[in-house]
Write a structure and sequence with these properties.
This protein has about 300 residues and is of the alpha/beta class. The chain has helices at about 25-35, 45-55, 60-70, 70-75, 90-100, 135-140, 170-175, 190-200, 210-215, 220, 230-240, 245-260, 260-265, 285-300, 300-310, and strands at about 10-15, 40-45, 85-90, 115-120, 125-130, 145-150, 150-155, 155-160, 180-185, 270. The chain is globular and about 45 Å long.
Length: about 300
């Protein structure tokens, strides 16, 4: 062993992505198994929840238990809807969930240095949050515009950090690290579903399950029935762009994430990309499967991780 080998200061950036970003739990699990010692964590949106939990001492097993046991359907259906100037959900129930784990902890209480990303709505600039209460900072970082009401911290109106930096590699780079791992979700199966919708069901035979149109536009499909080809063709002719609100939002966020992470990915020394395109943006009910995708993606990178970090 080379006793003079320099120990790397490793930081990890956890992307946003709503339910799909639960895959970061699986990525962190594999890194722990390998003995990778993180010196800094940065998170955006859902990545800020995972990162804040992890850095403040919540174990990965506790996170996985939450994912398995939470009645997400009830949580989502009966969320605290309001009519406000900045969002349709005031975030009270989300804050209660965060408080169960973060309590009144501050950034100084973190066992691993942590920061999260938000956006100043007035100044239209990125804000790196690394001081004060974790709960307030995370609540700001997850404030999806139009959904969650904005958060005011230090006289700044803050919204979801994913608007500017969905993958916070630049932010973690400011935290005295010299090696960056990026955990960034990818959406290849989203693209396949879209291409099947545009070009026909024979576009990509590897895609399992009903296509985009079938899964989003028919009561028959919602009841688990697959439409007959003639019926499907007639629906497409009648209204080929009759997309659901959920699907429009889901696809829009996917496009934005993919385009805005291109530069951020180039900053990372290792990129781990869980393939979660076949899960919905708000598909918390299948959270355990999403976590497993993170495990699978990280395991594929083990040879590269060992080589670059000399483990």
């Amino acid at each position: 062993m080379n006793i003079f080998k320099r120990k790397r200061k490793i930081g990890i950036a956890l992307s946003g992505g709503a339910a799909r970003a639960l895959s970061h739990i699986g990525v962190l699990e594999v890194l722990e198994e390998l003995g990778v010692e993180l010196k800094a964590v940065a998170g955006t949106s859902m990545g800020s929840i995972i990162g804040s939990f992890y850095c403040s001492g919540v174990t990965l097993e506790e996170m996985k238990s939450l994912v398995r046991s939470m009645n997400w359907k009830s949580f989502l259906l009966f969320s605290d809807l309001v009519v406000s100037q900045t969002g349709i959900i005031n975030g009270r129930r989300v804050e209660e969930l965060l408080r169960r784990f973060l309590e009144d902890k501050t950034f100084k209480d973190c066992r691993i240095p942590f920061c999260c990303v938000a956006v100043d709505l007035v100044k239209r600039e990125k804000v790196i949050l690394s001081e004060g209460k974790l709960l307030d900072a995370v609540r700001a970082s997850i404030s999806i515009p139009g959904f969650f009401s904005a958060v005011c911290i230090n006289n700044r109106i803050l919204i979801d950090g994913g608007i500017i930096e969905p993958l916070p590699t630049e932010s973690v780079k400011t935290m005295d690290v010299d090696f960056i791992i990026a955990s960034s979700i990818v959406f290849e199966k989203d693209r396949d579903k879209y291409m099947r919708f545009v070009h026909g069901d024979n576009y990509c035979e590897s895609v399992e399950g009903p296509g985009l149109y079938e899964s989003m536009h028919s009561s028959e499909s919602r009841r688990g029935k697959i439409l007959k080809p003639k019926r499907m063709a007639r629906l497409k002719r009648q209204n080929p762009l009759r997309l659901s609100v959920n699907n429009v939002l889901d696809t829009s966020f996917s496009i934005m994430h993919q385009e805005m992470t291109k530069n951020s990915l180039s900053i990372a020394d290792i990129v781990i990309e869980p393939e979660v395109g076949d899960f919905g943006f708000f598909d918390l009910i299948r959270g355990s499967q999403i976590v497993q995708r993170g495990v699978e993606a990280a395991r594929k990178k083990i040879p590269e991780i060992k080589r670059k970090l000399r483990l």
